[in-house]
Design a protein that fits this description.
The complex is a heterodimer of chains A (315) and B (280). With 315 residues, chain A is mostly helical. Helices cover 75% and strands 0% of the residues of chain A. Chain B is built from 13 helices and no strands. The chains are: A mainly alpha (315), B mainly alpha (280). Chain A: It is a multi-pass membrane protein.
Chain lengths: 315, 280
């Protein structure tokens, strides 16, 4: 598969451009490419490249909303790293991201493996059912879980009541709000890795399993020798994309705990929001955001390295 | 599959049921509350499956007088449709260029496009808000439309370039070029008509992603007149001091159900591995 694609890319190169002799041909070819790419380039420049650069320059000033601000050097960065709440939010975010990403990866893989055993029609409908959390608005997911875990009328509290155990207050007591955030986030997005894994598993030729079975491999050995090698690249892709998206996640935690109680579940995205749009301190908020950017860009570099192998994009 | 026995079947179904419950029960809890009577909704004695006498659709009739639902839905439809069309206009040629054309700078642009999809959008709202504030786009529908258009653009490009790469045989363009088309006319007359199903799928996903988006609309609006359905949920929950949970949950059902049902129904037509959206 990968080899075939690589070869066909060579053919594209041969046909278009690289091996052609005349200068005019090459010019004409590039002209077509640029015509196609220009709308995208303009959109990215206006609403992506420019704002990012503007944001980075902002971190060296004391910009607030509606005020251009003065150059203050590294003051914002010093403020950020010496701020207890930022350090707390940074560590909490890493915990949140690691927890959710691995849970999503594991549950997604399990869901994909189970669904793969079902027959086609059942697979379709049960698949849609199991994936359904992924399709709700993230904000709605937060509200759904807020109600699910509600201290007075929630399902979980009621279920604990049956056994006669007095449950902790899931959105208030100790570490529970943080754990609730991770569980709710896992619920919302595990279907993403299930979808990617399901596609990868479906693309494995049946003959390979049959051949392995004939040579005496049992179920576990077949899984290890045939399935697992095909899941390596998808795993890297899921890990890096989900890491970046879990870092960026704002809506669901915002609806579920809003960083509270107090500041106990203050992850970086909510902190950035609060500093920017509640305190109106844009420069400091973007400085906090730089920490998020740093984390997600690390994931992005890994992603790019992974897809480089097989020009196949999963989004 | 092969060598299946009874025990592994039982394990399989147990696993499937566990997943289905995990996915569905939180939804069920919201729906259950939304069809309870006022009294049953705030009683801790109401069962997991409520008695018939405790059920009513009152909450669903009440919410229409209580909240400006018509405005929310109208705004949601306007901004989602507009954002879908605008982003497709940008994404179709862009995706084709990434998938099939080669030109100096393609690789660099492609990698920055990968970064856009992984970038934490909450950070991006800050400078974008500043620009929109300067251009007086804050609290306007055009402002939301522009913001949502870029929000769904990377996703559209990814979906479509995957299709162009794998769904359109290369010899079709080859034949068109031999027939005397250039890249532009070959694309418009031959590739684009063949791609309509993929474009329709991308449009559906873009529409739903825009509909589900909370962050941009929340940050860019404060007026009720420009509020979309998703953002309205947040304000409705914060607004009701009476805590009539059945009414609140009924509005949640009404605002959440459309995208979930559409996604669920369209999933298998679009194919696996599609339909992601960056966090936010």
């Amino acid at each position: 598969m990968a080899q075939e694609q690589a070869r066909s890319r060579e053919e594209i190169r041969e046909r278009y451009g690289l091996d052609e002799e005349t200068f005019m041909d090459r010019l004409r070819e590039n002209w077509a490419g640029y015509v196609f790419i220009i709308p995208t380039f303009i959109a990215f420049t206006g609403l992506f490249y420019y704002p990012i650069l503007r944001g980075v320059t902002m971190t060296f000033t004391d910009t607030r909303l509606g005020e251009p601000g003065q150059f203050v050097g590294l003051e914002n960065y010093i403020w950020v790293v010496t701020n207890d709440l930022f350090v707390y939010a940074f560590i909490l975010t890493i915990g949140f991201v690691v927890g959710t990403t691995f849970l999503q990866l594991g549950l997604g893989l399990l869901a994909a493996l189970l669904l793969n055993e079902l027959r086609d029609v059942a697979k379709d409908w049960i698949g849609a059912l199991i994936m359904s959390p992924y399709f709700s608005a993230p904000l709605a997911g937060g509200v759904v879980w807020m109600w699910f875990l509600d201290n007075d009328f929630g399902f979980v509290v009621k279920a604990f009541g049956i056994v006669g155990v007095d449950p902790p207050s899931f959105l208030a007591t100790g570490m529970w709000p943080f754990i609730s955030l991770i569980v709710a986030q896992t619920w919302h997005d595990y279907a993403y890795s299930a979808i990617i894994y399901a596609a990868a598993i479906a693309s494995i030729p049946k003959e390979q399993y049959e051949a392995a079975a004939q040579s005496g491999a049992n179920r576990l050995q077949r899984f290890r020798d045939v399935t697992v090698p095909r899941l390596l690249i998808p795993t890297i892709v899921i890990l890096s994309l989900r890491t970046a998206w879990n870092i960026a996640e704002f809506s669901q935690p915002f609806a579920l705990t809003g960083g509270g109680p107090g500041t106990r579940t203050m992850i970086l995205s909510i902190l950035t929001y609060r500093v920017a749009f509640v305190n109106n301190n844009f420069a400091r908020a973007y400085t906090i955001g730089m920490a998020m950017v740093l984390l997600s860009m690390t994931a992005a570099v890994i992603y790019v390295k992974a897809i480089d192998e097989e020009e196949n994009l999963y989004v | 599959m092969i060598n299946e026995n009874k025990r592994s079947r039982v394990l399989l179904y147990a696993g499937i049921i566990a997943f289905a419950l995990f996915a569905i029960v939180p939804y069920y809890w919201v729906i259950r509350t939304s069809i309870l009577t006022n009294l049953a909704a705030i009683s801790q004695d109401t069962g997991f499956i409520p008695a018939i006498g405790e059920l009513t659709l009152d909450a669903y009739t009440q919410i229409w007088n209580r909240f400006a639902f018509a405005t929310y839905f109208r705004n949601s439809i306007i901004v989602s449709v507009a954002a879908t069309i605008i982003s497709l206009f940008f994404a179709i040629p862009g995706a084709y260029a990434f998938a099939r054309l080669d030109f100096p700078g393609r690789q660099a642009l492609f990698y920055t496009a990968v970064f856009t999809i992984m970038f934490p959008w909450i950070v991006l709202t800050i400078p974008v808000y500043e620009v929109f504030y300067f251009l007086r786009l804050v609290n306007t529908l055009p402002g939301i439309i522009i913001a949502l258009s870029i929000f769904v653009l990377p996703q559209n490009i990814w979906l479509l370039q995957g299709f162009f790469r794998q769904g359109i045989p290369e010899n079709i363009e080859e034949a068109a070029l031999i027939d005397g088309h250039n890249e532009l006319t070959a694309f418009l007359r031959i590739v684009l008509p063949l791609s309509l199903p993929a474009v329709a799928a991308a449009a559906l996903f873009a529409f739903l992603t825009a509909w589900n988006n909370f962050l941009w609309v929340f940050v860019l609006t404060t007026d009720e007149a420009t509020r979309t359905a998703t953002v309205a949920i947040y304000y409705i929950l914060g607004s009701d001091v009476l805590r009539e949970w059945n009414v609140l949950m009924a509005s949640l059902v009404l605002l959440v159900a459309p995208p979930v049902v559409f996604y669920g129904l369209s999933r298998r037509y679009v194919g696996a591995g599609l339909g992601g959206s960056p966090g936010g």
